[in-house]
Amino acid sequence: MAALRLPRAPASAALAGAAVPHRLPPTPAQPPPMWVPNTAHLNALLTAYGRRGRIRDAQELFDRMPRRDVISWTALLTAYADAGDPDSPRLVFDDMPRRNAASWNALLTLYLRAGGGRFTAAAHALFAKMPAKNAVSYGAMITGLARAGMLREAQAVYGEMPRQWRDPVGSSAIITAYLRAGELGMALRVFDGMAVRDIFSWSAMVDGLCKYGTVSEARKLFEAMPERNVVSWTSMIRGYVKRGMRRDAILLFLDMRNEGVQVNAMTLSVVLDACSEASLVREGIQIHGLIIAMGFEMNVFLGDSIIIMYSRFGLMVDARRVFSFMEQKDIVSWNSLITGYVQNNMIEDAHVFFKLMPERDAVSWTSMVVGFANRGWMREATDLFEQMPGKDGVAWAAVISSFVANGDYVNAVRWFRRMSKEGCEPNTVAFSCLLSALGSLAMVNRGLQAHAHAVYMGWVFDSAVHTSLVTMYAKCGRLAEAHLVFSSISNPSLIATNSMITAFAQHGLAEDALELFNRMQNDGQRPNHVTFLGILTACARAGLVQQGYNYFETMRSVYGIEPNPGHYTCMVDLLGRAGFLAEALEMINSMLQKDYPDAWAALLSSSSLHSNLAFAKLAAHKLLEMDPYNATAYTVLSNMFSSAGMKDDEEMLKIAQMSNMASKSPAYSLIIQEKTNTD
């Protein structure tokens, strides 16, 4: 055990016992010296203020600093730059007694981030004056120029960059610049020539191949990566989603989880999109559960994605529940819910939330206009449009397309003219709607003028416009012009091909329709349900019963397309026209939706064509059960009774009376009822 240390005794016993006549008062204890923060500490605090956006505190601290070094000045400059102030940093920069590379780079990055002609030019001038550039300076300059669309200038800066600095920062920047411009080949050339690659260059190339190359090439490069982070995984998953390979995206996400890579909000949002687009309800609900388990349920961005997903599933109760539980809601949250209600034809609910919105933007107004129009409530749609504070091209196009969808082609043309007169530049969507309206009105001369305007505007290569041109000419009976437009397209879209097949079918050119169908498959295009509607129509018009039946069967077996009521109606028409009325009736009875009016109307038409009163009566009675005021059913039956010499028949007289009543069917008025309860 250590010895106990006692207080020291006085030096002399005499002194210890002697009286002291004049004892001096004890010296008061001095406080410890005050801690004065050094410049490094103050610089750290200054930087923290800047990152938190506390600009006033940063400036006051800077003004009180006893000593400032170049780091202090750069921290203040960066604080103003991060706050989005493009002018104050230059004043700080000009006052700096000494500058280093970080100071120059901070101002350079600010100018490039601000963008626009003025700041890009200022960045160019600053970069030229820099006394000592480094890899960061070159990388920032290349990225900023590429973002401004100045690829050639970015290339020039990369060419000036010393070779020892190019990899990986400069090369990654120019790769991103090339990919931003869609120049995949140039990006690959730089990537292949890199001596040193980092995870950013690898991830950029994976993303670029997904966008502009093939997914298989992107996956091959992804698998070759020496290391992968959340960005590279998310890029590959997004690539699958964008190419419609949603199940592959989900499987890759599971691989990502199995490898222990920490996902972020962007990854989860992409996977939610995959689930919603592929109607993977069970998987989507599981991803929602994972988001809650990972503590992301309060993320507004993910909350919006979940609302969109449930809306696409048609689960609006769940979408509403997610919306209600969100502590923070932005305008996207409101718009997502309203759009979901509109897409699911729940217009009254959409209108309630539209009125409750704390603020509205163009998307809010346009969604509600489209909702009214989808119900056929064009007066309410146009009234709401007139109240819209800022009418953009999207809103105008929505109204014009709504007139087309509701068969009011005259008003579609009028509103397109009004759009131009009121100073809103027509876009390709509105122009495509105009072409559709002109085709439906058979206004071929106006259509020719519109075509000339499309050429002048450079719109003829737009997928929607050239497809609408094909359809417009076909509807006007100008099949040669339709085919000429279609043939001028170097790589026609599936929509354009479908339009041409439909045009051939409607003009009775079944052989041309089938030839184009075979050619599109040879070119790698996969037919969809619209393609088969055109093919079955062509077979029906040409009486190709066996071929039509074969195509109908291959929809499921070869292409995995489930026939919808429209396809069944084409088959009823095909069989009925050929006189196979019993088989046509059997086709209707095999439908899931047996009360589909168009199918029974096709059977009625075929029965009339072949003067088969028994089948005509059956088809007419089915139509009248669905719509007692169907004048066509009464008229066809009446004519058939008359042709059969049954004018005095009691049933004939009853049908004639009902025909007169049906021609005077009552009108309907529309009243929008608003809910008062938002629960």
Automatic annotation (TrEMBL):
Keyword field: Repeat, Transit peptide
Transit peptide recorded as keyword: yes
Superkingdom assignment: Eukaryota
PPR repeats: 38-72, 134-168, 198-232, 330-364, 392-426, 493-527, 564-598
Family annotation (Pfam families): E_motif, PPR, PPR_2
Name of the protein this chain belongs to: Pentatricopeptide repeat-containing protein
Taxonomic source organism: Urochloa decumbens
